[in-house]
Amino acid sequence: MGDLVNTSIVDAAVTINYARTHPVRSNGAGRCPCRSRRPSEGSISDPPGHSNTRLDHHAHRCRTIRSSGASLVTEASPEKTYHDWKKDQGKLRWSLLPLEAVAAVVDILEYGALKYAPDSWRGVPDAQRRYFDALLRHLFDWWVKKERYDPESGKLHLAHVGCNALFLIALEMTQIAKEETECTTPSKHTQPPTP
């Protein structure tokens, strides 16, 4: 008796789990729609005298549990769709980047790393003013002088503009982080309040 109960519980759990990912619609009589087909359509009828049946028909599987003479077919929620399986709303969409433009800027970074040293731009004195000047020089040559390529590097003026703009953004973010740290860190000379 105990084995029979345990088997029924396992069958019920397997049925519910399978139904969540394989929706089955009832035809009103607790039977899978494929069982209501005529034999000529490839249906498989219930064996007489059996109260519990399992049907494997092509890629479709229907499991019907009958308890106390009542038939029950579990169904998955039809509202569940594929896009609900990946919760990425509000996250950065890196695929929006124009990769061909990014590659042109990286090419400038490679040129600078060979000419000077990798990441040497971070230690340039008065960096914000100097990179602002460099950005405007390349932008002027491209817009006013109608030059497409920088004579020295042989690379796009606009790629130099983008590279200098990234430097300015990074330097600004570094400055903001530094100021926020200074505001939240207590000074060493601050005297504790007297009781």
Task: Give structural notes.
This protein is mainly α and 195 residues long. The chain has two domains: 2-77, no CATH class; 95-184. Helix content is 42%, strand content 8%. It contains four helices and three strands; from the N terminus they run H-E-E-E-H-H-H. The chain has helices at residues 2-21, 99-115, 127-143, 157-184; strands spanning 53-57, 60-67, 70-72. The chain has a three-stranded antiparallel sheet, covered by helices on one side. Mean pLDDT is 74; it is low at 26-30, 32-37, 39-47 and 50-74.
Summarize the structure.
The chain has 195 residues and is mainly α.
Number of domains: 2
The ordered string of helix (H) and strand (E) elements is HEEEHHH
- Class by helix and strand content? mainly alpha
Q: Segments where pLDDT lies below 50 for 5+ residues?
A: 26-30, 32-37, 39-47, 50-74
What is the overall silhouette? flat
Radius of gyration: 35 Å
Spatially, the strands of the biggest sheet line up as: 1-2-3
The share of residues in helices is 40-55%
Q: Please tell me the overall pLDDT.
A: 74
Tell me the distance between the termini: 77 Å
Major beta sheet, specifics? 3 strands, antiparallel
Estimate the strand proportion: 5-15%
Number of strands: 3
- Our count of helices gives 4
